């Protein structure tokens, strides 16, 4: 039986250190900030409004970290970079800027789509659903 993350998705990740996993710890802190801290500062005056806002920002940042931890190994995306003949994204970017891949637009587009999709899945989940 798996664990539900903050988005309600089930995962079976146990991690090398058992439970709670890093993702579960991050999710718990995000939940605390988003519920307890924000509730305690909601109507407590002007200075508390800033704390409330920063608690929301911190909770959102932690949820991004959680999604990154749950995303796992980026091997598929890196494999796309490797298939184009590069060791990393920096080398790929240099080649694109230099025009070295102008004759391979379909391969470059597929690679870039995979890289961007992974980033958006972490930073802005649901971006691709209406």
Automatic annotation (TrEMBL):
InterPro entries: DUF6285. It comes from the Bacteria. Pfam families: DUF6285. Residues 48-127 form the DUF6285 domain. This is DUF6285 domain-containing protein.
């Amino acid at each position: 039986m798996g664990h539900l993350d903050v988005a309600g998705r089930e995962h079976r990740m146990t991690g090398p250190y058992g439970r709670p996993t890093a993702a579960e710890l991050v999710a718990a802190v995000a939940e605390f900030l988003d519920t307890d801290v924000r509730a305690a500062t909601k109507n407590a005056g002007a200075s508390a409004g800033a704390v409330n806002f920063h608690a929301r920002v911190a909770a959102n940042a932690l949820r991004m970290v959680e999604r990154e931890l749950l995303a796992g190994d980026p091997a598929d995306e890196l494999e796309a970079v490797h298939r184009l003949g590069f060791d990393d994204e920096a080398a790929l970017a240099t080649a694109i800027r230099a025009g070295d891949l102008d004759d391979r637009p379909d391969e470059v587009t597929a690679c870039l789509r995979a890289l961007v999709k992974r980033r958006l899945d972490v930073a802005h989940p649901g971006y691709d659903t209406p």
